[in-house]
Amino acid sequence: MSLALLLLLAQVSGPPTRVRLDDARRELSDLKYKEAARTLADVAQRPNLTRAEALEFYTTDGLCKAGLNDTAGARKSFGFALLLDPQFKLAGKPAPRVSTPFLEAKAWAKEHAPPDLTLSDKRDTGATWTLVFTVPPAETEFTNNVLFALTDGTGTREVELPIAQAGKLEVPADTSTRVTWKVRDTRGWTLSEGGPVALEPRVAPKPSLPPVATYLPRNVAQPQLGPTAPPPRRRVFTWISGGLSVLSAGAAVALGFFARDTQLSLISSMHDSSTANYLVERLRTESTLTNVSWIAAGAFLVAGVILFFVEGS
Length: 313
Fold this sequence. Notes:
Elements: H1 2-12, H2 17-29, H3 33-44, H4 51-67, H5 71-84, H6 96-110, E1 118-124, E2 128-134, E3 145-152, E4 155-162, E5 168-172, E6 177-184, E7 190-199, H7 236-267, H8 273-312
Antiparallel strand pairs: 1-2, 2-5, 3-4, 3-6, 6-7
């Protein structure tokens, strides 16, 4: 239940990037270029966009800047979009203020390599694996770093390297490891992805000790064991109910703080009607979830007390 509440909280914490990109597209179709520019400026401040989201941002930003007669800005955004997707094309027959920077960006993109990190060699050095990559050139405000993810039996470990140092990666060869990677820009946006590369252990396992033989003398009476006492009852459901009560109470406290922040944001300054309606709806949802969490915490607590005596009898 607490997990569901946290998921609901994530949904009401603000419009996701996908929604904001859709808003910008809709504003462009309505020829509201300044409104679209403000929406895209909001998206530009967000970290960790996926490659698909980054591609849509640059294509939409290029169209928006072209509509505002910002030829240099449109050429730059179209150029980054073409590096991400060389097959990107403009729909229909665009006006010269759009087609001109796009054609200039297309010529620029042909002279620059896409932001792809390619595995070129895999060397077994005994104690380690050495992965050798073909590194894309660093572009200003574009290709910046590579985030490697190394997954083995203990979990996933991330290694971030500047693009200039990402040509070689050392991986211990004492366990099976799965390697993936993302090429990112300065904001953490994903420009390309690669892998997985599976690496098998190359360190010889330690020899196991031979089994120890045991011998029992013949004709020896085995001791008779008396009846064993039954194991004590475990209050499994009591602890489960108590844990759910604590989780629900924690969720209620967190949601209460979020509701308080939303209330302060609503009353501390003037808002337009759409923003005010959004904040009011968000405050109502957070308040409702807070009350539900407190009720759930109390119900689980009462159930835990009852189960404590029932399971112990």
